[in-house]
Amino acid sequence: METVFSLRNLYFYYGTVVALEDITMDIEKNRVTALIGPSGCGKSTLLRVFNRMNDLIESTSVKGTVTFHGQDIYSPEVDPVELRRRIGMVFQKPNPFPKSIYHNITYAPRLSGIRSKEALAALVEESLKQAALWDEVKDILDRSAMTLSGGQQQRLCIARALAMKPEVLLMDEPTSALDPIATAKIEELIEELKSQYTIIIVTHNMQQAARISEKTAFLYMGKLIEYNDTEKIFTNPAMKQTEDYITGRFG
Question: For the segment 169-217, what is each residue's pLDDT rounded down to a tens digit?
């Protein structure tokens, strides 16, 4: 199995506070990797390491290595903006731009130089189809994205990320603000997308991690306690801490 990311002895600091401690793991291509653990354990911080979103927070620092296809993403020659184009991100709460559905999808591609109306229209259709939203919005592309339901808005945000043709999709609790029906649609979508993308998802919902991921990493207080095939983590964890968390004894 091809490795997309390799983390070796990664430490991450907010000022002098250690948020991640000595993390070593590999992320495999075209797999869904779930990051689980109690609130404040470092899941979202770890997720944002992969596309250097943490750079946007003052006085953060990194020790150790994070490679993407063998290249150290924290080396000076890496352009974080280009890195984020290749590694898309979907946040916890749907955050569409207060613009039309069409403009939400075309905003970033236009900034990156795509001007042809035909190319943009094709990209809008392709991205919305990939996000299982095309049939619901194809006749209202000029309507404000803010008029969509929460679940539709989140799928629009996924389509917006896909429009930049990333290789990796990072998802930070993408269904925590959604109802069960919208959540099921996003989970189905993740299942379909993994044939084309490598997906890393932070989730508080352990049933969700068990349903949609092939690999699961359990974090606790900034440390990677256990990382293995999801089935093994949930049925036969190697560490007692993992078992206690999964069976609800703490967390």
Answer: 999 999 999 999 999 999 999 999 999 999 999 999 999 999 999 999 9
Residue 72, classified by CB atoms within 10 Å of its CB into exposed (0-12), middle (13-18) or buried (19+), is middle
Sheet holding 3-14, edge to edge: 17-28, 3-14, 60-68, 71-72
In angstroms, how far is CA 240 from the centroid of its own chain?
Answer: 28
The sign of the dihedral angle between the CA atoms of 187, 188, 191, 196 is negative
pLDDT, the chain, mean? 96
**Strand pairing class (60-68; 3-14):** antiparallel
CB 131 within 8 A of CB 101: no
Taking the C-alpha atoms of residue 200 and residue 48, their distance in angstroms, rounded to an integer, is 10
Cβ atoms of 111 and 152 within 8 Å: the answer is no
Please tell me the pTM assigned to this model. Answer: 0.95
Strand-pair partners of 20: 12
pLDDT of the residue at 249: 82
CB 244 within 8 A of CB 36: no
What is the three-class DSSP state of 164?
Answer: coil
Cα 228 from Cα 145, distance rounded (Å): 39
Output the pLDDT for position 28: 97
Residue 33: which of 65, 1, 56, 10 has the closest Cα? 1
**What CATH superfamily is the domain 3-246?**
P-loop containing nucleotide triphosphate hydrolases (3.40.50.300)
Q: Which candidate, 206, 146, 19, 167, places its Cα nearest to that of 89?
A: 167
- Report the number of secondary-structure helices (H) and strands (E) in the chain: 10, 10
What residue has token string 């991921």?
A: 213
State the Cα–Cα distance between residues 217 and 45, nearest whole angstrom. Answer: 14
